[in-house]
Structure formats: C-alpha cells, structure tokens
Specification:
The chain is built from four helices and no strands. It is mainly alpha-helical and about 90 residues long.
C-alpha cells in the first residue's frame, strides 16, 4: 500500500528547507513517505552532515553553547533514524 503523497507535500520544513522532525515517530513516518525517493534521502544525509560539521565547529570555540549543540545533535539523530528506516524498508521489499 502506498502512502498518500499529500502528507509529504505538506510536511513542515525549517527556514533552511530541512524537514522538521520533532521525535523518533516523526522520523519513522517520514521514512515511510520517502523510502523510494533518493533525492529526499540525499537532502537528509546532507542536512545531517551539515549539523555534525556545525557541532564540530561549535565545540572548537572556547565557550560553546551546549543547548544549541544538543538541539543540533538531536536533529542529526532523527535524520539518522529516518535514513536507517528507509534502508530497512528498501531491504524488506
């Protein structure tokens, strides 16, 4: 059964165009919508890489903002969960 694509079209995005995933359930549901769309998965992978890079840069400062670091790390984790779920779905089919 295919998922209705209207959910994907109406999915909330951040100001930079990243999908807004607020918890692991969102990540799993978003994976159900994009598992057959490599371009959407590439966007998630790029977003995750950018978040990890910005965290590394932030940690190099003498006074890092740990709240901001935690928010970025959490978002990167949700993106990773989503990408892993996409991989699992593709392997099961």
């Amino acid at each position: 059964m295919t998922q209705p694509r209207t959910y994907l079209i109406n999915w909330p995005l951040t100001a930079t165009g990243e999908p807004l995933l607020q918890n692991s359930e969102d990540a799993m549901y978003y994976a159900q919508l994009i598992y057959d769309q490599p371009n959407k998965q590439a966007v998630l992978a790029a977003c995750r890489k950018a978040l990890r890079k910005s965290n590394k840069i932030e940690l190099e400062h003498t006074d890092p903002d740990f709240d901001r670091l935690m928010i970025r790390a959490t978002r990167a984790q949700f993106y990773r969960e989503c990408l892993e779920e996409c991989k699992r779905i593709r392997e099961d089919k």
